Amino acid sequence: MFNRELLKGSTSLVLLQLLNERDMYGYELVKELDKRSDHSLQVKEGTLYPALHKLEKQEYIEFYWQEQEKGPARKYYQITQEGREVLIEKTEEWQQFVNVMNKVIRRPKNDPVKD
Amino acid sequence: MFNRELLKGSTSLVLLQLLNERDMYGYELVKELDKRSDHSLQVKEGTLYPALHKLEKQEYIEFYWQEQEKGPARKYYQITQEGREVLIEKTEEWQQFVNVMNKVIRRPKNDPVKD
DNA sequence: GATAGATACCTTTTAATACTAGGTAGGTGA
DNA sequence: TCACCTACCTAGTATTAAAAGGTATCTATC
């Protein structure tokens, strides 16, 4: 597990990305993230549900209920067109951030910073 | 400029890295980060000084005053041995986080997730 | 049938931390 | 004079991840 603070600002990006692949329900998102990250991205339900509700308010995602033959009903989330646009922006932003961080923290020799 | 939240959890890493290269004073750190990141990592003074004071309390950095012939005295910060050890840990943590994020947000085809 | 654990949703409160907006003071240049 | 740069600082606000709790259904085991 990482410093929890590292995830800040990236949760919505990760959720939009997963929902861009397919509709998923909250509990499924938690399990999927855990699986894909080899148990190092354990987003907690206290993080997930408020984050989903915010994305919904922003109209980046929508939901629909689906009754199950067995077990509780599932609230499936679906990305919207606006959500897809925001996802592209956020992904670019993330890539830029990583580039800048690498520039700052991994300073190769013979690469002087110009003023 | 990025989503401000992306920086969370990374500020101390960045500061320790810069101070691992040479002693610097607060105002210099702000300018240096701005320069190295092509003006995309503009850490504000309201962020910097509390962060430095925290690192100091944790004994990852120390300071000494240096009077200037002209202008206000400068408070130079210096990384400690403990700080260097923490820097190594934090750098590894950052790399792992980036790896996991890339795994989650950039899903190549023909790379199914195994259960 | 009782109990534990998994599934599935949720909220309230706490903690961490980046930023806004302000302050002090000296130096420089038009 | 006035603006702007250097150089330090803090109080308050906003955001958000997590902890800790709740509800309800279903399944498996003793």
UniProtKB/TrEMBL annotation, chains A, B:
InterPro entries: Metal_resp_DNA-bind_regulator (IPR052509), Tscrpt_reg_PadR_N (IPR005149), WH-like_DNA-bd_sf (IPR036388), WH_DNA-bd_sf (IPR036390). Residues 15-87 form the Transcription regulator PadR N-terminal domain. This is Transcriptional regulator, PadR family. The lineage of its organism: Bacteria, Bacillati, Bacillota, Bacilli, Bacillales.
